[in-house]
Amino acid sequence: MTERGGLASDAAAMNTRDPRLTPLRAGLADSRLRGIVEAERFVDGWARRVVVPSAPLRGTPSASAGVDTEAVMGEPVTVYEERDGFAFVQLGLDGYVGYLPEDALGSADPVPTYRVTALRTFLYPEPNMKRPTIGYLSLGASFAAEECEGDFLRIGPEAYVFAAHVRDLQHRQPDFCATAERLIDTPYLWGGRTSLGLDCSGLVQLSLLMAGVACPRDTDMQEAALGEALPAGLDDLQRGDLVFWKGHVGLMLDGSQLIHANGHHMAVAVEPLREAVERIAEKSFGAVTSIRRLSQVAP
């Protein structure tokens, strides 16, 4: 099985018919697929936005179905159908298709203007840190601020965040490895892409998102889309290089240390690459399939 990835698709990309990225299910398809697939109904999707801290995207409209990935507050989605408490959607961030809880979605407007840069920040009912919290936002979540009240930004009728925990939406953290390092000890979570839980490609995607680098969701997609392949071998690696296995990915922090969210530690952990390669070859994903270097090299 492959772990997490994908970029927002257009009609040309849909010709690949990757089910993870193709807005198609029994009886219904995106109108852009007309003439490419057969369906009873072709639908022009409508724009919505995630309005809860995070929401699970599932492959079927059932709360007991496995989680493929997560969408976080502020992310745009295209909705094709709403029924029985679930919305059949395509995520704007990476093109992933599936079912979100209908109550996780709201109006596409206003467009977010701020992004959370703290690992997570609490939501308060008033601009007062002594008030009981009403939720939290994770690293990477975004929102439109309505006004500033003291040290807080109002992001809804009764929701405030601490202003120092967010930055303008255009802010970038170019050292994506530094972002990954901030997430050390975050628990491993299949499908996770928040600071409460991450899988391997979720760690890579979130770290690159904060650097302003578009990144697919699953490892096979990341391996195909990101950077340039390096010659085989574990020598001459540098900070920011991506190491891929069939179903797993990690980031090099320097020439020898790997950071990755993994099931062995059940957390985001740092370990010598050669030790990880030996263990993974013996117990899980087999041999390294490629090492890739991004043009945006971490400083």
CATH architecture of the largest domain: Alpha-Beta Complex
How many β-strand stretches? 26
Number of helices: 5
CATH class of the largest domain: Alpha Beta
The order of strands across the largest sheet is 21-26-22-23-24-25
- Bin the helical content: 10-25%
The low-confidence parts are 1-9
Overall spatial form: globular
CATH superfamily of the largest domain: endopeptidase domain like (from Nostoc punctiforme)
How would you summarize the topology of this molecule?
Elements: H1 11-14, E1 24-25, E2 28-30, E3 41-43, E4 46-50, E5 54-58, E6 67-72, E7 76-83, E8 86-91, E9 97-101, E10 105-107, E11 114-116, E12 120-123, E13 135-138, E14 142-143, E15 147-149, E16 152-156, E17 159-162, E18 166-168, H2 176-182, E19 193-194, E20 197-198, H3 200-210, H4 219-225, E21 228-229, E22 242-245, E23 248-252, E24 257-262, E25 267-272, H5 273-283, E26 288-293
Parallel strand pairs: 2-3
Antiparallel strand pairs: 1-2, 4-7, 4-10, 5-6, 7-8, 8-9, 11-14, 11-18, 12-13, 15-16, 16-17, 19-20, 21-26, 22-23, 22-26, 23-24, 24-25
Helix pairs in contact: 2-3
Structure description:
Helices cover 13% and strands 36% of the residues. The protein has 299 residues and is mostly beta strands. The protein folds into three domains: 11-107, SH3 Domains (SH3 type barrels, Roll), CATH 2.30.30; 114-168, Roll (SH3 type barrels), CATH 2.30.30; 176-293, Alpha-Beta Complex (endopeptidase fold (from Nostoc punctiforme)), CATH 3.90.1720. Strand 19 (193-194) and strand 20 (197-198) form a beta hairpin. Helix 2 (176-182) crosses helix 3 (200-210). The longest helix is centred in the C-terminal third of the chain and has 11 residues, at 200-210. It is globular. InterPro entries: NLP_P60_dom, Papain-like_cys_pep_sf, PG_Endopeptidase_C40, SH3_16. Keywords: Hydrolase, Protease, Thiol protease.
